[in-house]
Design goal:
This protein has helices spanning 3-42, 62-73, 91-98, 102-108, 118-132, 146-156, 181-209; strands at 54-58, 79-83, 109-112, 136-142, 161-167. It has 212 residues and is of the alpha/beta class. The protein has a domain at 54-170: Rossmann fold (3-Layer(aba) Sandwich). α5 (118-132) crosses α6 and α6 runs parallel beside α7 (181-209).
Length: 212
């Protein structure tokens, strides 16, 4: 092996070592952020005596809707939006499923049937909140979904106060997620969605700053 070949090999080894070190640092950083994310989700608490102009419930579980309607019946807000309702679901079905009085449902509950995902929830909620001139919202969704949901809503409603109201999922115990494979997988999936949503929102904001 001549001198040039030796130098070329050393450069390749150095480059590979550098790439591996960078990759290891990135993975460690991502893991640290995941641990912080998981701790935030598992330690979130229900706010004491929460009150706001209105309530928004992001669909994805019956308990979310039940909790939102209970807050409304307690007088915690004036009006409630259930975002992401299936087109085939009627107000009567929701009222029956949640044991809600139909008169109150007809009076103070709105249904959004357009949103297909969390970003859509945020867009439709923003339209609804602005049309009613609401300045504060109780955000009701599952505890693991709160960070992403709040981030999406803050991006479209920067001047509206958001009060997160977590609902514990029925299927998994997030307080001890590290002891449960299903809970760990749930948090990993949500963490990836959170990271992707964060990147998308930042790109959109950067584009707006550039006038794109």
């Amino acid at each position: 092996m001549d001198i040039n070949q030796k130098r070329s090999r050393k450069r390749r080894i150095s480059l590979l070592s550098f790439v591996l070190v960078v990759l290891a640092v990135v993975l460690l950083f991502a893991f640290a952020i995941f641990l912080e994310f998981s701790h935030k989700v598992s330690s979130v608490r229900v706010p004491q005596d929460p009150r706001a102009d209105a309530i928004v419930v992001l669909t994805g579980g019956t308990r979310r809707v039940e909790q939102g309607l209970q807050l409304l019946s307690e007088g915690r807000a004036q009006r409630l939006l259930i975002s992401g309702v299936h087109p085939g679901t009627s107000p009567q079905q929701i009222a029956t499923l949640t044991s809600m009085d139909m008169p109150m449902f007809e009076c103070c509950v709105d249904l959004d049937r357009l949103a297909l995902n969390t970003a859509g929830n945020a867009t439709e909620t923003a339209t609804w909140a602005k049309s009613h001139h609401f300045k504060s919202l109780l955000l009701v969704t599952s505890s693991y979904h709160l960070p992403r949901a709040q981030m999406e809503l803050e991006s479209v409603l920067p001047n509206v106060k958001l009060i997160p109201y977590p609902v514990s999922p029925d299927s998994v115990d997030l307080k001890h997620w590290y002891e449960n494979l299903a809970a760990t997988e749930l948090l990993l999936r949500e963490y990836m969605k959170y990271v992707l949503a964060y990147c998308r929102i930042r790109v959109m904001l950067f584009g707006e700053l550039l006038g794109l």
